[in-house]
Amino acid sequence: MQHPKGDGRPHDSDPIDSFIRDPQITADVGRLLSGRTRDIRIKGALAAAFRRRTWRHTASVIRSWMIWVVLIDVSMLLLSLYLLPRDAALGLIAPAGAIVPAALGVAYVWRKPRSEAVSGSALMLGMLVILMSVCWMGVAAGEVLLNRYLHIMLFVAITAIVIFSVPFIQTVAMAVLAMTLYLGFQLGFADTDAGIALAGVLFFGSGIGATVFARRTMNILAHKSFLLELRDRQRLAELAQTNRRLERLSKIDGLTGAANRHLMRERMDELWGRNGKVAVLMCDIDDFKALNDHLGHLEGDRCLVEVARIITACTRSDVDCVARYGGEEFLILLPDTSEPDALAVADRIRRKVAAAGLPNPRSRVRPTVTISIGVAFAETETESVSSETIQKRADTALYHAKRTGRDRVRSWNEGMEHPVKLADAARARRRDPVRKIS
């Protein structure tokens, strides 16, 4: 997986799922979280992901702050027009008016995701216009009110530093801009001694500096929270993958890799929830007990694995379901399959198993492994046949395939006797060979 380009362009989609499977991201997250919190620095793909993750909240805060500035600006202007002398009040209109488009312009830029360069430049330009306009309002109001407006400018800058979750370099830039404007207007327009102006810069600068470092700590904690979320999501993804693997294993026969009865039942329940053609094949390896007794269970297991492989190769891996249903029995579910096609599949399986030449010296058919198959077919659109019924029909057809010589395919029909009755008749013949069984 390639890292997303760190162009800083945020998106609405959650970036975490795109990163949790990346080994490099996983390594970076582990390395950053293993060190000290104060040393956390995210960059590249992680930084881009963090911006995408937090953009919506950051943009909402910035837009709200800009609207707040506009409301405060209009309120101050109206109050000044009421309280100040006419000439001084009229002088406030131009700088106060500049704040409105600057703030609304920033709010507009942050209305939707843009590149970091565009959104960051718009924010810094808007802050420059807003802070400088507040300072010019102080000049227009007169020297008596200049310091008050400069303090308002510092307050505006500090609130932005505190609540704007932006890159640290932008936070520092806002702090430097505020202190530069404060010192410049103190020396250029206020009747203030240079020493007193510098003392004011040191006093307010220490407060803004502490605010800047507090903002840095907040950024680091936000980065750490993001990294912890990434790590938790990675672990949850691994756990989910393990659970899926365990679920698959719980539905797979451990020896042959075919499905087990549980999975076959699920597939049948799903299939019987809709209309269509369906065929069921019940397969049984001929004289398998004799193979186990003569060649041993290891050879018997090898036979089961190979037969399961042959059956799977003869079916559609993405549609059909092959399950080991008993010791040497396999049940095959063929959705959307006509009766001729099902018989063709069954005969192909029979021929492939015979051609494999797996040894079975004690077989009553030939000295190699053979398989008998019963086929049952139903159209669920025109007849009401349960999955249990069609499975019993396939089992009945299998019994007839065994009874008529093995190594063959038989399709169920209504004239077939139930396998239980046939088995009872066979046991009766063994008990009394002379007795005629009707």
What report would you give on this structure?
There is one protein chain. The chain has helices at residues 23-34, 45-83, 86-91, 93-109, 116-141, 143-163, 168-189, 194-250, 261-271, 288-295, 297-313, 339-356, 387-403, 419-431; strands spanning 277-285, 321-324, 329-335, 371-379, 409-411. A hairpin with a 4-residue loop joins strand 2 (321-324) and strand 3 (329-335). It has 2 domains: 16-234, no CATH class; 261-431, Reverse transcriptase/Diguanylate cyclase domain (Alpha-Beta Plaits), CATH 3.30.70. It has a 5-stranded mixed β-sheet with strand order 2-3-1-4-5, sandwiched between helices. The protein has 14 helices and 5 strands. With 438 residues, the protein is α+β, with helices and mostly antiparallel strands. The chain is rod-shaped, with a radius of gyration of 41 Å. Mean pLDDT is 86; it is low at 1-13 and 420-438. Helix 2 (45-83) runs antiparallel to helix 4 (93-109) and helix 5 (116-141) packs antiparallel against helix 6 (143-163). The longest helix is centred in the middle third of the chain and has 57 residues, at 194-250.
What's the gist of this structure?
The chain is of the alpha+beta class.
